Amino acid sequence: MSPSVPLQEMIRAIRSARTQCEERGVIQRECAAIRAQFRQADNGGRSHNLAKLLYVHMLGYPAHFGQMECVRMIASPRYSEKRVGYLGAMMLLDEKQDASLLITNSIKNDLSNSNQYIQSLALCTLACMGSAEMCRDLAPEIDRLLRASNSYIKKKAALCAVHIVRKVHDLGELFTKAARSLLTEKNHGVVHGAVVLITELCERNSETLERFRKTVPDLVQIMKGLVISGYSPDHDVAGISDPFLQVRILRLLRILGRNNEAASDAMNDLLAQVATNTDSTKTVGNAVLYETVLTVLDIKSESGLRVLAVNILGRFLLNNDRNIRYIAMTSLQKIVGTDHNAVQRHRGTIVDCLKDQDASVKRRALELSLALVSASNIRSMMKELLSFLSSCPPELRSQTASGIFNAAERYAPSQRWHIDTILHVLTTAGGDVRDETVPNLIQLITNTSELHCYTVHKLYRALLSDISQQPLVQVACWCIGEYGDLLLTGECQETEPVQVTEDYVLDVLETVLQSHMSSPSTRGFALTATMKLSTRITENVDRIRSIVSIYGSCIDVELQQRAVEYNALFKKYDHMRAAVLERMPVIEKNSQGHTNGETIKESQTVKVKPGEPQQPANQVQANAAFYTVFSIVATVTVYEKDGVTVTLSCEKQSDSGLTVTLTASNSTESDIRGFTLQAAVPKSVQLHMKAPSGDSLPARGTAKLKTRADMSEVYETKVSPVTS
Q1: Does 567 lie in the same domain as 444?
Q2: Domain-embedded: residue 568
Q3: Counting Cβ atoms within 10 Å, is residue 61 exposed (0-12), middle (13-18) or buried (19+)?
Q4: Which secondary-structure segment (H or E) carries 708?
Q5: 34 and 53 in contact (C-beta within 8 Å)?
Q6: Residue 630: pLDDT above 70?
């Protein structure tokens, strides 16, 4: 390929290259030829060479050596060279490069040129890559051109002024008067540029916004003219007169009417007219309708107009275009809190969108469906959501389960329905629920004493059919351990009668212990449930003792430790076993909070009994299910979180009594005030707790807070740090 080949020949040679290496070779040779010709003083093919270099730049190859050639060509008196030079400046230069400052004077001269096309080139270049310094220098020229008689120049000057306002906010005041006068123009391009400029000015300055609120009647008249005008071949798009200008005017009206009663009243009739007269069968009409809806919902519009806007979004939900359905649900999601009843009318359509094949539409439909759940429709909506949960994509299961839990907690018509709903979720998608689900359900079951028999029977049957869902298995094991006696009596009238024997129950728990699907935490629940059954059954205590002893040599340290402790209860402290393994009291939460899967902080509960050493578990699940037994040691850390450390020291006073000292320290950089230590024990234990040494923890551990408690028999210490 010769150095002087035309642009078309170079493009053809590059496209015919079979490999990337061959393509690079062609471009390198041509760039070398272009560079050599740039050095020549008298070069008649400057625009031709720069055009080829710009094509090379579009392919991603370096073309920076052509920047100065752009500057020289912009200064040329010939229009053909200026055109390519300005194009090259917009592509190769930006405001960060010093070379861009070299064209400021050329742009200023061209803005005063008598040729409107040369003025247009300068305006486009300034609007594309003008720096803040260039904008300050040339802003007066742009203001002058906004008042020119040529509509072609005025519309480009208006868009250039938009760029200047974005770069230098302080220059907005310079264009305010001219922008107002442009609204009276007949040329749609000029009016469009004026609306964009006014929008930018109003968004940047609140005083300017108040000033332009007086233009609302003018904008309304312009918009009405577009809506009721007949066919115009220059502006018609699919039967809509200049939809681009209509959309821009609606956006500006939205800004002017926001939080202003007078401006909103002035545009209510117009918005109703646009909403009812715009054709919704074409994409262009839907674009105008969507902007109308956003404007209605954002200003202080009448209630009937807001209902009309919601109904338009409801029609969008029936559109075959998934993009339109998506934006409709996104808009409904934003207003469901303020216009709940209006959105509720389209609940059926929204629920149907859960079956959409598009993942984004399905996710939006789920979010909106969860937001529409209320006390009046909880049963019907939950039926739909549970059906969706059984077939939804894996990435949506966690969100769906959390939403169902939240809705059930807020609007459950009965405790039994609440429990059944959560168990349904655990059965369907137990592996996708959040960690706090198990302790929250355990608390719910504990607090509904009238449903203990029903719940334990239902969970027992669930355990017989499936042990793969770990949260469900954990709750089932916990319930069997707590209420196994109710399971064995068979007197539950809430469920179908089922024959349950002690051997059947122990067989199920052994299956869980031995299953490869069971996690270490689940095995811990099952082992504790087995141990607790030793006080609730009469004929299989030896079998329970045998099961527990097997896990005394388990390779899982936590499970082994608990088995050793439970063996100690059988051997050394059998007289205390019934008291230690009595039913759990009602579980209370320290803090209120439950929505949307937020973690609920529970009190950390530790069972204490002279025996084998043990470090208490920190997780709420373990606190709800496991009884920790440990021996008298010098110091044990029972709470360590967020910089607060609580240690427990024990001193043996008699065979059945202990003196426990609780010490708290703060390692953070700020003091903690309002700090309290609380203790709770079962009925079989006597507690005498002395007042703490203070109610604040100094920063960086400079001082500690202490309190002492005397206890006898088996006792439970509940450490609950509370800060304010």
Answers
A1: yes
A2: yes
A3: middle
A4: strand 705-712
A5: yes
A6: no
Confidence category of residue 622, pLDDT binned at 50, 70, 90: very low
CB crowding 381-392: b at 16 or more within 10 Å, else e: bbebbbebbeeb
Q: Does a structural domain hold residue 653? A: yes
* Lowest mean per-residue pLDDT among 32-36, 479-483, 488-492: 488-492
Residue 575 clears pLDDT 60, i.e. is over it: yes
**Residue burial 555-575, b: 16+ Cβ < 10 Å; e: rest:** eeebbebbbbbbbbbbeebee
Instruction: State the angle between helix axes of 520-532 and 541-550 in degrees (0 to 180), rounded to the nearest 10.
Output: 150
**Amino acid making up residue 165:** V
Contact call for residues 666 and 646 (beta carbons, < 8 A): no
368 in Cβ contact with 350 (< 8 Å):
yes
Helix 502-514 / helix 452-465 crossing angle, nearest 10 deg: 50
Q: Assess whether pLDDT exceeds 60 at residue 718.
A: no
Mark whether 448 and 577 lie in a shared domain: yes
pLDDT at residue 4, rounded to an integer: 62
Which among 428, 511, 501, 401 has a CA at the least distance from the CA of 463?
511
71: amino acid identity, one letter? V
Q: Which domain holds residue 696?
A: 643-667+690-707
DSSP string computed for 89-128: HHHH--TTSGGGGGGHHHHHHHHT-S-HHHHHHHHHHHHH
Sign of CA dihedral 583, 585, 588, 590: negative
Which H, E and C letters describe 223-271, residue by residue? HHHHHHCCCCCCCEECCEECHHHHHHHHHHHHHHHCCCHHHHHHHHHHH
Distances (CA, A) of 322 to 316, 317, 319: 9, 9, 7
Specify the pLDDT at position 628. 34
Q: Is the pLDDT reported for residue 373 higher than 90?
A: yes
pLDDT tens-digit profile of 126-144?
999 888 888 999 999 999 9
Number of domains in the chain: 2
Long-range contacts for 308-313 (Cβ within 8 Å, ≥24 apart)?
308/272, 308/275, 308/276, 309/275, 310/335, 310/339, 310/342, 310/343, 310/345, 310/346, 311/342, 311/345, 312/275, 312/280, 313/346
CB burial of residue 579 (10 Å; 0-12, 13-18, 19+):
middle
**Can you tell me the distance from the alpha carbon of 289 to that of 520, in angstroms, rounded to the nearest whole number?**
57
Residue 485 covered by a domain = yes
Same domain, 650 and 537: no
Q: Which residue has tokens 């749609």?
A: 188
Please give the full DSSP string across 73-94, using - where no structure is assigned.
HHT-S-HHHHHHHHHHHHHH--
Tokens in use for 637? 């850390």
Asked whether 281 and 228 are in contact (CB, 8 A), the reply is no
The rounded distance, in Å, linking the Cα atoms of 169 and 703 is: 54
Asked if the structure places residue 696 within a domain, the reply is yes
pLDDT band at 609 (very low <50, low <70, confident <90, very high): very low
Residue 607 pairs in a beta bridge with: 716
Q: Across-strand partners of 539? A: none
Using alpha carbons, select from 350, 280, 266 the residue that is nearest to residue 308.
Answer: 280
Q: Residue 201: what are its φ and ψ, rounded to 5°?
A: -65, -40
Most confident range (mean pLDDT) of 372-386, 628-642, 644-658, 672-686 is: 372-386
What is the reported pLDDT for 508? 92
pLDDT at 677 over 50: yes
Q: How far apart are CA 41 and CA 704, in angstroms?
A: 85
Listed in sequence order, the residues at least 6 apart from 564 whose beta carbon sits closer than 8 Å to its beta carbon are: 552, 612
pTM of the model: 0.69
Least confident segment among 332-336, 393-397, 430-434, 529-533: 430-434
- Do 440 and 577 share a domain, yes or no? yes
